[in-house]
Amino acid sequence: MKRRDFVKCCSMAVPGALFVNSVGSDILSRTIDKPRHRMFEDDFIKKMADTAIFTAGKNGASYSDFRLSNFRSQNISTREQVIQSIRDNENFGFSVRVIVNGSWGFAASSTFTEDEVSRVSKIACEIARANSRIQNSKVELAATPVYNDSWKTPIKKSAFDVSIDDKVNRLFTVNAKAKEAGADYCSSFIWAVNEWKYFASSEGSYIKQDLHRLFTSFDVTVIDKQSGQFDSRDAFTAPIGMGYEYFEDYDFMKDVEEAVEHTKMKQKAPSVEPGKRDIILDPTHLWLTIHESCGHPTELDRALGYEANYAGTSFMTVDKLGKLQYGSEHINIKGDRTQKNGLATRGYDDDGVKTTEWDIINSGRFVGYQTTREMAKFIGEKASNGCAYADSWEHFPIQRMPNVSLMPGNKKLSLADLIADTEDGIYIKGDGSWSIDMQRYNFQFTGQEFWEIKNGKIIGMLRDVAYQGNTVDLWNSCDAVCDASEYKLGGSFFCGKGEPGQVSPVSHGSSPARFRKVNILNTTKEAGK
Amino acid sequence: MILNENEARNLLAKVISNSKADSAIATLSGNNSYNIRFARNSLSTNGFADGLSLTITSSIGKKSGSVTTNRFDEGSLKEAVSRSEEIARLSPENREFMPPLAPQVYSESFNFSENTAKMSAAGRTTQVSYVIESSIKNDVTCAGYEEDEVSFSAILSTTGLFAYNRGTKANLSSTIRTVDGSGSGRFEKLYTDSGNIDFKGLCDHVIERSKMSVNPAVIEPGRYTVILEPSAAADMVSLCLNYMGSRGADEGRSFFSSPGGGNLIGEKLANDSVHIYSDPVDLNAPSVPFTWDGEPRGPIQWFEGGVLRNLHRNRFWAEKTSAPSVPYPSNILMKGNPGRTLEDMISTSESAVLVTRFWYIRSVDPKTMLLTGLTRDGVFEIKNGKIVRPLRNFRFNESPMNVLNNILELGKPEKAVGAETGDYPIFVPPMKVANFNFSSLSDAI
């Protein structure tokens, strides 16, 4: 098929057609099959690492590490049958992190030569020495075993090995389907990331990792010409630690058809009556509630005050560890950097600590924090649970969220069972607007679809729904979590934290869960309309 | 890495000389940035980064491809150009393609300061030391961030367009909390010139504010007259811009869509006192006088006397709708009342709630521009011209357009940083606003 034919084909609605690979032979692998890190032999990279560590030691460092990384991404975004952008990015560089006189020093550069590695290592030591003069508490690292290892995200097909044609074709087909179903507008994108990194420490570790992740979604908008009312809905896809196989396997056609149909329904749906209602949160929504109200407050650095100037602190302070009844008995939440397809899944963190899983909430009780080598001592832990991460070679690794997931219920309970058991409630799908305070008490969330439940049956849609409340009240009001057959991952590429700002990818799994008597707001009334 | 104008032009010329595309535009950006982070009255992390990055966008007919790289050897530059051309060749036509502009004339820029560029390690630690030592002396706990940066951006296209800008920024912020955790205050300042940061005055003021804010009282959520300090006002004004795209309005999916089609330009949508504008050469908030593709940025009025004068509009949509192109601005300013200080506004208020700043603001409903967020680091009750007590934090649900409609009084504008504004240059007055919707209480400090 020629290019012109391809465009023509994709400009039409293609009823029932799934993705056709129009020009399968046009593999665009040449665009990114020579990532910069592959231009250097392993021996050379090790020599540079050793140079950094040797220089740091000579300049007074009691500890040092070297991190070389290459972040590659490809982002294709479309709107109707128009390509908005096709971008290949590659960001390669290294950093040296040292401890001198109990103070951190950090410096980074994108020029990867032996002279520059030495210079940057010296700068890191100079910074640490200067800072140590006003350092009031010395940095101490929890011990970790030494590793000489490599790790790779288990993917079936790298998105970087697939033609741009294939990606654009699939996106255009989604957009065309949306228009055919009655959407006024549809945009869609695919974003593939490959994060390659090499870590070496003065303690003797040498670790190489090759991480892959993918994010794809669409957004349909429907306008009611008579009323001027407009509404939209995103895909129920999840950003995920997988390869291109996720993009190929996801049933976009079903999702986009439903998105248009449900958006039209929402426009005609009654506006919600504010008040206390039971809510059932779908995994496409619940992931964000978990992220904001459990993931963030159990970051130990923020509980200790290290994030007070930006992200805030936490109501889950160290004195509450092991004591706080965070949720009901149905609530079991784990931190896990080994979870299948998790965005925060990897072999080792950026402190060189092997990743693991652990309990954060056990039968409703708060029992665990997320830690790094620097933070572990503050709660008397001898080892870190592996949560250090830097989003770039030029950023200092800080404590970042692992995959934090709500465990499914032990008793057999499907979503249909849960709805059938609910007298008066709202079933919420998809993440919408979210906001939570700086200690993670007061939150407000909206969603994308709100289904009204009466006497065990879904009777229609509602609109203008938000729910608002307090974290501990919400999780203690949970009286049912569906079983593992309903378990799904959600997540984000862009969890923000730190100064300078860093983003980290993170997943959150859950099964649908029911919460009793939650405060429902009407967003139109809140706007004073 | 910072390249001067000639170095940048030469490097970009080398890139463009490899182009075999119908048109190409290359952008180069670099920075030298230092930062120090502190918490619990001691240093935590720090950093120095030396970066340089190139993006080349090649177009063959109406087909385009972009590649970003930070490899600068000759072979890599050639490869980046050919990769972008290969992407372009394999891409479908972009019906909304706009070719690179011809050479343009730009205003002189004022966003660079030698003071900041020459900032020393001692200069950085002096600021941070003062905050830490003052906090220890006053038995409060500080956390904060200092950052100074020199950066540049340059553009060269196959049409001969060339633009270069070198800028600096200096930022200092600190959140100061009482030891018992029941009080908090915060300052943040961001200037082109580090010398403008009055770190001693800011720190002393915020230590006092943190102590004033302990044991906050509870008042019922509801609609109140508020005085928004400049940080809070900055969020309300700048977040409006996110909704002010002409295309969304013209397509019927925006607050600024006219019910009968088209947009609301020319309509009176806000209070008479609302004058909001952008101008990259305004010394109160200097910024880059061109866009990423070299389109010049000039002065632009958004609201005059409450009347909507402009929406931002890219070159494609401008051509399609036969309307002028209005690039997304690089700063935002709002006129106020230079003779009215914040203290004047407080002293003449019978009953109001003083809001230091907001936090975690998110869009709830684009149809009404409803936002939600929280107050943070100091909320106070004002009675009969005086701050009488600290108040518990609130969650708000409010539209910035309601805020701009309900203005009672504006004070003296100043450079401000909001919770959601990052390093975007903003110059806004404190605002006294009626009927502000506090939806619920938050236990957070």
Overview of the structural elements:
- The complex is a heterodimer of chains A (about 525) and B (about 450).
- Chain A has about 525 residues and is α+β, with helices and mostly antiparallel strands.
- Chain A has two domains: about 25-270, PmbA/TldD superfamily (PmbA/TldD fold, 2-Layer Sandwich); about 275-525, no CATH class.
- Chain A has eleven helices and 22 strands.
- In chain A, the strands form five sheets. In chain A, strands 1, 2, 3, 4, 5, 6 and 7 form a seven-stranded mixed sheet that branches.
- Chain A is globular, with a radius of gyration of 25 Å.
- The termini of chain A are far apart.
- Chain B folds into two domains: about 5-210, 2-Layer Sandwich (PmbA/TldD fold), CATH 3.30.2290.10; about 215-445, no CATH class.
- In chain B, the strands form three sheets. A six-stranded antiparallel sheet of chain B has the order 3-2-1-4-5-6. In chain B, strands 10-9-8-11-18-17 form a six-stranded mixed sheet, covered by helices on one side.
- In chain B, helix 4 runs parallel beside helix 5 (about 200-210).
- Chain B is an alpha+beta fold.
- Chain B has helices spanning about 5-15, 75-90, 115, 120-135, 200-210, 230-245, 245-250, 315-320, 340-345, 400-405; strands at about 25-40, 40-60, 65-70, 140-155, 160-180, 185-190, 220-230, 275-280, 300-305, 305-310, 330-335, 350-365, 370-385, 385-390, 395-400, 405-410, 415, 425-430, 430-440.
- In chain B, a hairpin with a 5-residue loop joins strand 5 (about 160-180) and strand 6 (about 185-190).
- Chain B is globular.
- At the A-B interface, helix 1, strand 2, strand 3, helix 3 and helix 4 of A face strand 1, strand 2, strand 3, helix 2 and helix 4 of B.
Features:
heterodimer; A: about 525 residues; alpha+beta; PmbA/TldD fold; 2 domains; seven-stranded mixed β-sheet; five-stranded mixed β-barrel; 11 helices; about 20% helix; about 35% strand; globular; B: about 450 residues; six-stranded antiparallel β-sheet; six-stranded mixed β-sheet; about 25% helix
